[in-house]
Structure prediction request, 277 residues.
Amino acid sequence: MDFLQSIDWMQLLRCFIVGGAICIVGQILIDKTKLTPARILVVFVTAGAILGGLGIYKYIIDFAGCGATVPLTGFGANLAKGAIDAVKESGLLGAFIGGVKAASGGIAAAVFFGYLASLISKPKIKKQ
Amino acid sequence: MGENPLENPQKYSDYVDKKSPNSPILKNCFNAFWVGGLICSIGQIIFDFCKYKGMERQASNTVVAIILIGIAAFLTGLNLFNRIGKFAGAGSLVPITGFANSIVSPAIEYKSEGYVMGVGGKMFTVAGPVLVYGISASVIIGILATLFA
Prediction:
């Protein structure tokens, strides 16, 4: 198949390693601190937004592709990049529309699929 | 009978540390590494496929996020994601799949409180803070970019 031949295996390996390494950071935070999962998600998104705002995160994306965009740091970096790009286009207004615009697909998918999945699922009844 | 461990917070904390099993951090990290890496690699293959079909970079990234979020949401609904999460820890939490899981889990749990305040409201118990801090950070960064542009 043409598509299989078009896959860059070195790129895939870099993606695997960097994506895994970012998860190790999360695991160490879980094991070594008393941060709850919710706080860890917030820390990752905020850290990603700051790294994205400083222009550092795009080098990690260039290197690792989805290894950098799929973790929540990538979600944060995407928000920051969207805001900065929109500011270049439409000034201060861009600060308010750019971030959410860039992340809109993910947010809408999370809300919609999240709602749908909750509808089809039955809550577990905990046995006493 | 030894000392009462509830005497002061420090003693209580030591007592809890002593009683709770040591989490095998190396094993946890290894599992987080390969499951997290695998999820990102699945994303990369979807991304490559979008590029192969001639989509732009930004659009491809969005498609990756949507598909991974969709899969994670339904795996959570089928009660399979929790098992992966127990095994992989941060490996399934830190990728965007963890964001989807954090929306569906409380929504299912509070379904008995109704479809508006139960499902609709509790969906955002974890995802809400993520959006609050993520979006606020992006607005601040945008404002800073306006000032320094």
In short: Chain A touches chain B through 85 residues (CB under 8 Å). Helices of chain A lie at 2-6, 9-32, 37-53, 57-64, 66-69, 72-90, 92-120. Residues 61 and 68 of chain A are 5 Å apart (CA to CA).
